Structure formats: structure tokens, C-alpha cells
């Protein structure tokens, strides 16, 4: 995303990537001896490694087998963590479904790895590309990097989720705890994610107006709300009850009957999540990285609860896990191409789909409050950015750090976002280290979220 | 679609539209005095009427009020036809749901009318355009026509369907006959259509390979199959039973227990439908026109059955109607811009979504056999095209008729498709008349479909 990042700051201006892409087209015309011959050539998969873009990174990095192994270990560990944690009455179904889910997720990972190079060659051919602004002045900042590659994980993970659902329904017996209502919610989640993939890709291609970016996620949140079968009542924690007045029909005996207010809150959560990943962006791997960390945190929470004694809680967390596992597998494959130095940019396609997938998992899994704590860096980044977004403070075209070609380090610019704040507090660093700093903050937020849950549980409150 | 029509014949060659779009980009660069100024200009809605494209058609044609009136009359007529036909036990729910559906559909129509000009300006800005090949040599063939405008009806109809579902679920009571399983199937239909909108738009932008066009509809058909809750058994009509051998487990007492074979058949139906509208294309208004006629036929069939005594039949036809009514409203709005002479092209975005919407309605409404009869012109066109598609007979880049600039008439070329066949049999005609000829054939197929149903009903057979 570095190429066209942070358009929040300047929605009316043409993005740098678009302008450069036009230059790229012009260049392509000059380079090709005959347009007909160029157009007739079939795009080659993996041709991006041989593109004259000044990058010498092979498509398969040396550490690939190690990373593959870590993925498989992660998947297996997740299954066994869940199974060894609790053996409830439904554990047999949970076991078989988790094994199925793990198998589909591994398939999603390999499929995404295969589809990304295909997407790259098609996007390069149509000049859907950007430039790496944080490497300006070096060899890495010269070439064009394919944009909107989030399309590959998007299509693959939705296909994977649908295959998983088909297998679930084919194999189900009368005792399976996941009924039609469960699948209705699952389909609602798929609709939401798919809508965001479409919206994101349209945005990458057409640069849609900002009002559409706020309005369309509301529509895509509708199936989540419509399918939301459970209570919208909130139990007020005992120490706070003294401060909550009794209102007939709304606040009775320490229970808030929120109804439409709660649904409105859910819409806000979904709209916020789907846009928030897009705002905390700007260095290689940070969009996919933060999404991966949040997703792992949420999946661990799911796996701790899929064997819950409460039937609804168990089913809800299974639903959330069913969305998150393929998402994490696809994201991991994307990260292997998007990690510093990026060979692909994820595009709005990925940031919207990731935000929506995490938000929908939080809503459908009934832990949207915890999810918001996991999203603490994004919430902070959004609030911190508001003065510039509202133009109270001058807002330049890009709010990225400055790259020093001599030292190879990024230094803070006086812009109000988390990335510059981290550079300001901890000093200049390389782009890779900056991404790692953001991910460390993200991991701390996840840990804090689990801590809050534990503390509230100890106190006997509900979260 | 005329600009990039019939790529079936030449999947490996660059489409004319793509080549022209590159020329268009070049042109844009030359015309604009300063790229910055051009890019900073906010696209104006309805600016396409003032584009220097040699067309002088105002965005609002004089007959618009009449057409609006006809839409409203059509909607109301459909409701009352259904209500006066039968008054079953569930008629109260049916009435309220049909009124809700009609209201949402009218809103979808007006929203699509508003969104199309916005899409047009964005697509023009990014040179997502084609040329009108059937008008080559005249003023109308000179300018660029915005492509892929099917995106507007696609996004609006999906949003409309989701609003409709939300209202349904908000207003439902304990006696509402549409349960979670119904909504699971509804969501499955939305997933399928949305997947096709995404696939179509990606194809319009990137020209995806043919294998993807076959494989991806299979994935998008999965939720339909997974949600398909009803029998896959087929009752063999009595006169044919003598010819069907008894096979234990598969064919017993005149009933075929098809199971997976029937599901495979459904996948074929969906994949065929989603591609077939795309193949029968090539003159202004023919893609949206044929889809509209088929959709009206299917909706009439639904409305005759929403009060059926059989509870499942009634619910299935309501499900199909819930998808078709917003689809028809959006298609009607698109037709008002796409009818001869086209101010917009519908793009693969529309042809895929239309094919999938009709196919999914047939599968979810449990009348896929009737739907295939409605698709008779598309089936014929596909079979008739096979010799050229398989390159048994030489296949030129485009299989369109020849346009005579002197007479203004289209004449047949020796290509194997329905459009040329109609010109060959009935002689040269204008492009508008050619579209009308195709639509007449389509109407006859619908009438034939109803005739077959009636005949089988009289004979006591099941369809």
C-alpha cells in the first residue's frame, strides 16, 4: 500500500500511484517494439521476478520451507490447544470440524501462493501498479510494484470458506450442533467480506468517493445485523449500577435493553473496522501484519471457547473461527510476498476485506467489545489522525515518514499518526523495524485484551 | 458490450476495447493541458452527456416519464396478479412481503438511475471504455462509450436485496413462513450474485483467463448447493418408466434417486447460465433486454406460485421472486441507458451477474428445468457456436454482423451465432430491430416454457 497510502489525508487529489501508473503506461508503450506483439503475448506466471523493476528478490525466498513449516505447526498447535483445553459433550463434532477447517485453511494458503503470481502478471499488464515511496532514491524505489494484490487472498479465502461450508453440510449428522441459523450467519459473514473485496477492488481501480466508502460498508453490515439472532441486552457491571438510572423499557434492574442502539453500535464497529486497517498503513507488510496479529489473537480466543459448556457461545466462536482460519492462511501467503522489501502491494482490496473479516468475526462471535480492544492501535491511530483528517491541522498529500538515502533509515515527519509517533518516541529506524514496532504494539494490545477479559472474569463481570 | 463482445471467439487476443482504451489514455494525455489540473477536477455526475463522443443523446430521454409509469404499473400489476390468483392460508404474509418487495424494487430502480451516471464519470475518467463497432463509420461509432456499467445495477441490487432481508427479519412474527433456512438460502443467492459481480468487474478490468471463468462460477455455485435442502429425487413420467431400468439405490419404482448427479446437474446449470448471457451479445441492449425478458417470465411463474398450497413450493417461489424483483428493477434502469443507441455498455460485470441471478433463482425456486427452457435461445446459441468456439470452423476476431454505412443496416456474416442467423433468415435490418428480433425469440421461448409446464400438468406429470 505504500504507493498510494493514506489518501485519507487528501481524498480529492489524485494518488501518486495513479499518476505514476499513467507514466508507467506511457513507458510500456515506448518500450514495446510493437503493441500487437506485446498484447498477444500471454502473461507469464511469476514473470514479476524478471520485470525490469530494479528488484532482484526471487519469488521463492530461501526461508520459504521454514515459513511453510511454521504455518503447519501453527495450524496443528491451534487444533490441539483447543482440544486439550476442554473436552465437552460436543468435542467430537468440534474435533472433526476443526480438522476440516485446518485442512481447508492449508489448502487456502497454497492456493493463495499460486494465485498471487497470476494476479501479479495480470495487474502488471494492466498497469495496476504503485511505487515504493519509502525507498525513494534507492534502487528499490525505482520500479513499479503491482497493486491491489489483495484480490488473490480475497477470492481464494471466500472460495475456501464456501468449500468448507459445503463439506460441513455434506458431512453433517442429526447431532451436529451447527444448524441452518448457524449457516445463515456464516453466509452473512461471507456476503460482508465479499462485498468488501468488491468495494476495495473497485476503489483500487476507480478511486471511489469517500461517501461511498462509508455508506457501502453499512449495506454490507446489514446481513450481519439481520442474521444477528441473539440478545441485544447488556448486563451492567455491579459497581456501575449505581450510576445507571432506571428507565422503563430500557434500563431495568441493572440490565440495559439496548435493542436498536446495540445494532447501531454493531454497524459502527463494522464500518470502523473495515476502514481502520486502511488508515494504519504506509510501510511494507504493516497492513497484512497487523491483520494477521489481530486474527491470531481472535482465533486463539475462539479456540478457547469452541468447547464451551454454553451451546450458543461454542457455536458462535466456531462461526468466528470458520471465518478467521481461512483468512489467516490467505493473509500469511500474502505476507510472504508483502513483507519488507515488498514484491506486491496489498491494496484497498485487502485492507477493506481484512477489516471487515475481523469486524464480522467479532460481531458473529459475540466478542465485538474484545475485538475493539484488539483494535486499540487502530482506534488510537484514528483518533490521533482526526485533527489532520478534519483539516484542523495542515495535512500534506502523504503523511509518511522521510527516507534518508544515506543511512537507509526512516525519520518522523510532524504528521499525526501512529507510524510517525513510533519514530518520534523510539528514534529513526529501518522500514522493516518500523513494521515490527507496529506489530509489537499490536501484540501488546492483544495481550491487554486477554488481560481485561481475565480480570473481568475474575471480578464476575461479563464481557 | 458491443465494444468488446464475443471474446469467446478469440480469448488469446487482446480485445478491441482494451487496445482502444490505451489509445484513449494517450488521447487524454494529449488533450489535457496539465495532468495535475485534470486529475484535481472532481468528476461531474451526468458529465457523459457533454463528453466529446459525438453523441447528442440527453441523459433523460423524452419518454422517461412514460417508462417510469410502466415500471410502476408493472410492479403493481405483478402484486395484484399474485394476490387475485389465490388466497391461501399464508396470503397475509405473502401480501405484506410482496408490497415490501415492490417498494424495495422501486427504490432499487431509482437508486440505479442515480448511480449509473456516477459510474459513467468514474469509468470515463479511468478510460474503462469501449467503441460501438456496429456503428463504425458513423458519428455514433467514433466516441468512447463507458464500459462495465453493470457495476451500478450490481452494487445497487445487492444492497437492495440486503435491505429487503433486513426489513423482512425486523418485521417477522412467529407465524411468518420464511424461517432461518429460507434466509440461509437467500444469503447463498446473494453470495453467488455478488461473487459474479466481482468476477465480472475483474474480467472487465483485467481480462481474466478462460479457465477462471469456468472455475470461479463453480465456487460461487457452492453455497447454492450447500443450502439446497430439498430432495434430489426425480419422478420418472409414467410413459417413460418402461425405458428406465431398475437399479438398486438409484432407480426404484419409477423414482430416480440422483443425489450427487442432481447436484452436479445444478452446478452445470449455474455455470452455463452465468456464461450464456455473455455469449449472446453484440448489439445495443441485447444483453440487458434478454435478461429482462427471462426475468419477467420467471417472476410471473413465481407470482403464480407464492400462494401455493404446498408450503415448500410457496416459500421457494417467494425466494426466487425476492431475488428477481430487485434484479428486474436494476436491469430496467440499465436498459434505459443501454437501449439503442447505447450511452453505456453493460460489460461482463452485468452479463455474469444477470446469468447467475437467473440461474440461482431457478435453482433456489426449484424450477431449474423450466428456467432452462426459458434459456432456449442461449442454449441454441451456445450449441450453434461450438464449431467456432472449438476452432473446427475458422473463427475471426469478432463474430458481429457487418454494418453498411450507406443504408444504416446490419447484414449477416458467415459466423455461427443466433444474431447472424436472424439476419440471414429475416434479412438485413437496423441494430435496434435486430435487438427486437432477439427479444421476440426470447418471448416465444418464455411462452413455450409456460406451454410445456401446462401440458405436463395436464398430463399429470411433474416438472
UniProtKB/TrEMBL annotation, chains A, B:
Its EC number is 2.7.8.15. The keyword Aminoacyl-tRNA synthetase does not apply. It is a multi-pass membrane protein. It catalyses: a di-trans,poly-cis-dolichyl phosphate + UDP-N-acetyl-alpha-D-glucosamine = an N-acetyl-alpha-D-glucosaminyl-diphospho-di-trans,poly-cis-dolichol + UMP. Its cofactor is Mg(2+). Its main location: endoplasmic reticulum. The keyword Transit peptide does not apply. It is found in: Endoplasmic reticulum membrane. Residues 1-61 are annotated as: Disordered. Pathway: Protein modification; protein glycosylation. It comes from the Eukaryota. Belongs to the glycosyltransferase 4 family. This is UDP-N-acetylglucosamine--dolichyl-phosphate N-acetylglucosaminephosphotransferase. It comes from Pycnococcus provasolii.
Amino acid at each position: 500500500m505504500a504507493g498510494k497510502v493514506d489518501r485519507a489525508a487528501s481524498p480529492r487529489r489524485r494518488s501518486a500511484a495513479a499518476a505514476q501508473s499513467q507514466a508507467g503506461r506511457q513507458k510500456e508503450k515506448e518500450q514495446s517494439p510493437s503493441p500487437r506483439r506485446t498484447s498477444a503475448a500471454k502473461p507469464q506466471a511469476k514473470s514479476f521476478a524478471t520485470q525490469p523493476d530494479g528488484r532482484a528478490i526471487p519469488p521463492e525466498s530461501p526461508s520459504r520451507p521454514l515459513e511453510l513449516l511454521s504455518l503447519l505447526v501453527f495450524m496443528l498447535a491451534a487444533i490441539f490447544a483447543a482440544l486439550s483445553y476442554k473436552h465437552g459433550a460436543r468435542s467430537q463434532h468440534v474435533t472433526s470440524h476443526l480438522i476440516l477447517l485446518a485442512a481447508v485453511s492449508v489448502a487456502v494458503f497454497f492456493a493463495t501462493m499460486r494465485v498471487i503470481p497470476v494476479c501479479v502478471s495480470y495487474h502488471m499488464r494492466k498497469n495496476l501498479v504503485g511505487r515504493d515511496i519509502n525507498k525513494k532514491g534507492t534502487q528499490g524505489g525505482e520500479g513499479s510494484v503491482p497493486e491491489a494484490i489483495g484480490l488473490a487472498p480475497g477470492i481464494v479465502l471466500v472460495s475456501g470458506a464456501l468449500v468448507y461450508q459445503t463439506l460441513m453440510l455434506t458431512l453433517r449428522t442429526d447431532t451436529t450442533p451447527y444448524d441452518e441459523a448457524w449457516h445463515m450467519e456464516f453466509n452473512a459473514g461471507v456476503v460482508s467480506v465479499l462485498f468488501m473485496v468488491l468495494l476495495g477492488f473497485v476503489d483500487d481501480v476507480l478511486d471511489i468517493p469517500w461517501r461511498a466508502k462509508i455508506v457501502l460498508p453499512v449495506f454490507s453490515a446489514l446481513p450481519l445485523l439481520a442474521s444477528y439472532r441473539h440478545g441485544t441486552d447488556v448486563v451492567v457491571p455491579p459497581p456501575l449500577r449505581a450510576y445507571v438510572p432506571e428507565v422503563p423499557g430500557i434500563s431495568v434492574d441493572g440490565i440495559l435493553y439496548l435493542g436498536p442502539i446495540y445494532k447501531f453500535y454493531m454497524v459502527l464497529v463494522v464500518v470502523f473496522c473495515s476502514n481502520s486497517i486502511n488508515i494504519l498503513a504506509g510501510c511494507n507488510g504493516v497492513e497484512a501484519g497487523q491483520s494477521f496479529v489481530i486474527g491470531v489473537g481472535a482465533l486463539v480466543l475462539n479456540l478457547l471457547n469452541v468447547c464451551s459448556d454454553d451451546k450458543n457461545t461454542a457455536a458462535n466462536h466456531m462461526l468466528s473461527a470458520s471465518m478467521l482460519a481461512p483468512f489467516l492462511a490467505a493473509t500469511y501467503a500474502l505476507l510472504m510476498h508483502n513483507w519488507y522489501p515488498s514484491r506486491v502491494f496489498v491494496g484497498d482490496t485487502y485492507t477493506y476485506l481484512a477489516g471487515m473479516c475481523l469486524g464480522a468475526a467479532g460481531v458473529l462471535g459475540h466478542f465485538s467489545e474484545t475485538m475493539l480492544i484488539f483494535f486499540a492501535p487502530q482506534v488510537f491511530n484514528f483518533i490521533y489522525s482526526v485533527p489532520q483528517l478534519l483539516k484542523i491541522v495542515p495535512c500534506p498529500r502523504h503523511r509518511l515518514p522521510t527516507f534518508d538515502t544515506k543511512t537507509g533509515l526512516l525519520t518522523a515527519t510532524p504528521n499525526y499518526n501512529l507510524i510517525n509517533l513510533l519514530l518520534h518516541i523510539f528514534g529513526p529506524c529501518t522500514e522493516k523495524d518500523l513494521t515490527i514496532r507496529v506489530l509489537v504494539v499490536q501484540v501488546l494490545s492483544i495481550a491487554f485484551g486477554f488481560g481485561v477479559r481475565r480480570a473481568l472474569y475474575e471480578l464476575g463481570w461479563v464481557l
